[in-house]
Amino acid sequence: MPTHIEIPYTPRPLQASLHNKLTKHRWGVIVCHRRFGKTVMAVNHLLREAILCTRPSPRFSYLAPTYRQAKAVAWDYLKQFSSKIPDVRFHETELRADLPNGARINLLGAENPDSLRGIYLDGCIMDEVADMPESVFPEIIRPALSDRKGFAYFVGTPRGHNAFFDLYEQAETNKEWFSVVYKASETNIVELDELEAAQAMMTEDQYNQEFECSWVANVPGSIYGKYLEEAMEDKRITKVPYDHSLKVDTYWDLGIGDSTAIWFAQNDGRAINVIDYYENRNEGLPHYVDVLQRKKYLYGDHIAPHDIEVRELGSGKSRREVAYDLGLDFRVAPKLPLEDGIHAAQMLIPRCWFDSERCKLGLDALRHYHRAYNERTRSFRNSPVHDFSSHAADAFRYLAVGLKERSNWNQPMPRSASSNYNPFTHTGEL
Questions:
Q1: What interhelical angle do 225-233 and 360-368 show, nearest 10?
Q2: Would the CA dihedral through 373, 376, 379, 385 be positive or negative?
Q3: Is residue 416 part of a domain?
Q4: Residue 272: phi, psi to the nearest 5?
Q5: Domain holding 272: CATH number?
Q6: Whose CA is closest to 133, among 106, 163, 168?
Q7: 410 phi/psi in degrees, rounded to 5
């Protein structure tokens, strides 16, 4: 191997900074807009690592969603930038470059994950991860890196909340990972007049996804999506610890044959720390009392919607009374029109910090919560779609309404019922 090799590649300032940061991290997530130059960057980073690698028989791979894409997008770049290396050999049928130090760089497709089993890797860059089967990294690539302790970098443009989004969330909260987002409006790589022309020819969602790296753009009519995206950009979706000095209030959407959703939040007077979320279905109130007990929080108020007062035909008791008999004293959230509640929730999110792990299920639901599109009128309907996301969204709305109108709480449950049940001494299985 020659002592000095010069690759004919001059990275842009952003790319140069990116190369430097990647060398310091084993794992990285790069979210970038169209025409950022991610493929050129990826190929040259692999070349650099392959040239400098001192392990025996190094193996590096560029992985695209399909083999055809790998060939069409990256093969010419690999030949172009490695052609100056003395004694480099190209294998056209295998999309492989063999370097004089024994290193190999392969271009691979992810459309048939089983065909990738058995390989080992010192490093891999996965391009357009959002378009790959979710199993590719955890089942194939991650094991292939293990014995060599190789690196993996994930590159692409968002496609909603899929495996690529999960990787980005992990990178945002794990110090061992690197993450970065490059928006076209910030990089100055694509000229302004071209961005304006593209914006005029694309829908707002299309433009925001492809050029502004929006994670929620492909959820048309999303009610809370942009607010949660801002929370993510502000690093307010992160690890939020439980503060033992503050009480935890819970906010419920109660279902019978449907899901029950519960948000757990602490109010420190400035911010609302949303530390936990729980959801289940086809379970009675004793189950949820056990859940609260097992979480071992210091509880404050438990807030439920007004329909908790409705009496059931069988027992003649309201669910509020049943809960009280179990040791759980609910307060009733102020009753507001749906749109007022949604607006209150939208205004609350900028004050919230969400625990990314414990609240993941609830946050996914909030991002999905949306209004249906009316093709005839080319407009979104007023009423949100009722689906899996509704329960988390309703419970969060009660959180917002409750905080907004705290002084208007209904009086506590009259202490006429008697019970020996104590949810904080009771033991039971979830």
A1: 130
A2: negative
A3: no
A4: -105, 115
A5: 3.30.420.280
A6: 163
A7: -60, 155
Number of domains in the chain: 2
CATH of the domain at 204: 3.40.50.300
d(CA 319, CA 311): 7
User: What is the β-pairing status of strands 259-267 and 27-32?
Assistant: unpaired
First to last CA, the chain: 62
Let me know if residue 419 belongs to a domain. Answer: no
Contact (CB, 8 A) for 86 and 100: yes
For residue 43, give every residue at least 6 positions away whose Cβ sits within 8 Å of its Cβ, in sequence order, or none: 62, 74, 77, 78, 81
d(CA 130, CA 160) in angstroms, rounded, equals 8
Residues in the chain: 430
Residue 250 CA to residue 402 CA, distance in Å, equals 11
Residues of the chain with pLDDT under 70: 1-4, 217-218, 256-257, 311-316, 375-379, 404-430
Same-domain check for residues 66 and 21: yes
- Give helix 390-404 / helix 338-348 axis angle, nearest 10°: 80
Same domain? For 160 and 246 the reply is: no
Q: According to the model, what pLDDT value does residue 429 have?
A: 36
Q: What is the pTM of this model?
A: 0.69
Run of H or E including 372: strand 371-374
Residue 245 shares a structural domain with residue 197? no
Asked if residue 337 and residue 381 are part of one domain, the reply reads yes
- Taking the C-alpha atoms of residue 367 and residue 196, their distance in angstroms, rounded to an integer, is 28
Structural domain of 159:
13-218
- Hunting for tokens 């407009």 — which residue is that? 379
Q: Pick the closest to residue 108 from 80, 88, 128 (CA basis).
A: 128
